Amino acid sequence: MRTTCKFCWALTTTLVVGVLFVGAWYFVRGNVTEGDDGRTSILLTTGERDFVLTEMRGLLEAVEVITFELSEENMDGAAAAARSVGMGSAGGEPVTLIAKLPLEFKKLGMATHNAFDALATEAEDMGDGSVVLGQLSGILTNCTSCHAGYRFDIAE
Ligand code: HEC
């Protein structure tokens, strides 16, 4: 009986550690494969891909409004557009989707939302258009580097 229980405990511990390890590994790596164009392909369901792409189009629309408002020297308008895609807009993603995104992807995504908040604060506080434009240029580097490294595909 005692031996059986020791064995049970050993088995349970191994299983728990194993599950945690696989979970952590999955969280870091995401659900990915090598894309046919050399980029890392993130495998999602159709609904998940639609969700992320909708968010992406929202980012581009914010960039559109920010550049327009900067050209009009309307700092409050630029700040409002940036704030709408800041950290306050993040977090609506389902956990199942977040788990499929590689850690690097999540970090770059969060950094991008944070950078929009920083741009909003700069526009509100200082209102220096060229500084804000420089920040926007830095944000666009996040967009292009992520697009160069990742794509979405539908999991079979
Ligand atoms: C953390 C990664 C990441 C960041 C940061 C990112 N994107 Fe994307 N975006 C993607 C991926 C992946 C796709 C899908 C590309 C593909 O499948 O070829 C995409 C697609 C898009 C699309 C296409 C949407 C559609 O309906 O097909 C737009 C527009 C877009 N992104 C805009 C932006 C803009 C603007 C920014 C920066 C403000 C940005 N993205 C930042 C990862 C990112």
Named CATH topology of the largest domain: Four Helix Bundle (Hemerythrin (Met), subunit A)
Biggest beta-sheet profile: 3 strands, mixed
> What is the topology, as strand order, of the major beta sheet?
1-2-3
Amount of beta strand: 5-15%
Please give the CATH class of the largest domain.
Mainly Alpha
Name the hetero compounds present: heme C
* Unreliable segments of 5+ consecutive residues: none
Describe the structure.
With 156 residues, the protein is mostly helical. The protein has two domains: 1-30; 32-154, Four Helix Bundle (Hemerythrin (Met), subunit A) (Up-down Bundle), CATH 1.20.120. The chain contains six helices and three strands. The protein has helices at 2-29, 46-71, 75-83, 95-100, 103-125, 129-149; strands at residues 32-34, 40-44, 150-154. It has a three-stranded mixed beta sheet with strand order 1-2-3. A hairpin with a 5-residue loop joins strand 1 (32-34) and strand 2 (40-44). Helix 5 runs antiparallel to helix 6. The radius of gyration is 21 Å and the shape is elongated. The model has no long low-confidence stretch (mean pLDDT 93). Bound molecules: heme C.
